[in-house]
Every structure is written in C-alpha cells, then in structure tokens.
C-alpha cells in the first residue's frame, strides 16, 4: 500500500504531462499541416500522430485502462526511438523536425523520457 497517496500524485503528474503534450503537439501539427504541409509533410504528419498518441494515452490513463495505456506507451516509445534514429541517419527524410525527431530534442527529450516514466507508473499502478 502506498503512503500518503504518492502513487496518485505521480499518476496525476503523468496524466498532466500527457495532456499538455497531447494538446501542444496536436494543435501545432494541425497548424503546420494546414499552413506548411508542402514544406515537410512527413514531419508534420508524424507530429500529428504523436499528438494523437499522447491524446489516447491521456484518455487511457485517466480511465485506468492500463492494458491499452501500456500498448499506447510502447507504441510511442518505439515511435520516438525509430524516428529519433531515422532523424540522425536519414535527416533529409523529414524536411523539418517532428516531435519525435532526435528523440524529442526540441522538447527537452521529454518525448523519450515520458513513455518510459509512463510505462513504469502503469506497471506499478496495475498491480
């Protein structure tokens, strides 16, 4: 049993971070797709995908749907690692950076750290 609701506080932090990233990544990507699609369609589409993944993760975490949350977070982790590696080895592929480019460097590497932290919390909470 957790003392003083620490698990709830951590969970609220994870949910809040996902909510902020869902909103910021999705709104920014929609703007970029509408206004600048021709400049970097792959990067902006990947950013929209990231935003939608953050949104789905937020909903799953709020609803305590840990199985779907875990799958979503794993997908996100694979995505950020894959896009991170591709952005290093094939930078011309994207045109511009996406949320997941260079492992989320433009976002303080939070896109890389967040799914790891989220998976740890889901594992801990689902017990």
3D architecture notes:
The structure is a single chain. By secondary structure, the protein is an all-alpha fold. The mean pLDDT is 90. 73% of the residues lie in helices and 0% in strands. The radius of gyration is 15 Å and the shape is globular. The protein has helices at residues 6-36, 41-62, 66-89, 110-125.
Termini, distance in Å? 11 Å
Bin the helical content.
over 70%
Most strands sheet: none
Task: Tell me what portion of residues adopts beta-strand conformation.
Answer: under 5%
Radius of gyration: 15 Å
Unreliable segments (pLDDT under 50, ≥5 consecutive)?
none
Which structural class do you get from the secondary structure elements? mainly alpha
Written as H for each helix and E for each strand, in order along the chain, the element string is HHHH
Compute the average pLDDT.
90
- Continuous helix count: 4
The general outline is: globular
The count of DSSP E runs of length 2 or more, i.e. the number of strands, is: 0
């Amino acid at each position: 049993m957790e003392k003083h609701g620490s698990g709830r506080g951590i969970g609220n932090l994870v949910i809040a971070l996902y909510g902020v990233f869902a909103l910021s990544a999705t709104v920014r990507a929609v703007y970029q797709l509408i206004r600048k699609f021709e400049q970097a369609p792959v990067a902006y589409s990947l950013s929209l995908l990231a935003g939608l993944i953050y949104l789905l993760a937020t909903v799953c975490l709020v609803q305590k749907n840990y199985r779907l949350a875990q799958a979503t977070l794993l997908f996100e982790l694979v995505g950020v690692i894959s896009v991170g590696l591709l952005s290093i080895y094939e930078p011309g592929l994207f045109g511009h950076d996406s949320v997941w480019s260079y492992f989320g460097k433009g976002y303080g590497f939070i896109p890389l750290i967040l799914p790891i932290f989220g998976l740890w919390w889901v594992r801990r909470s689902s017990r």
